[in-house]
Amino acid sequence: MSLIGQEIVEFKANAYHNGEFIQVSSEDLKGKWNIVCFYPADFTFVCPTELEDLQDQYATLKSLGVEVYSVSTDTHFTHKAWHDHSHAIGKIEYIMIGDPSHAISIGFDVLDEQGLAQRGTFIIDPDGIVQAVEINADGIGRDASSLINKIHAAQYVRTHPGEVCPAKWKEGAETLKPSLDLVGKI
Question: Is the entire prediction scored with pTM above 0.90?
Answer without folding.
Answer: yes
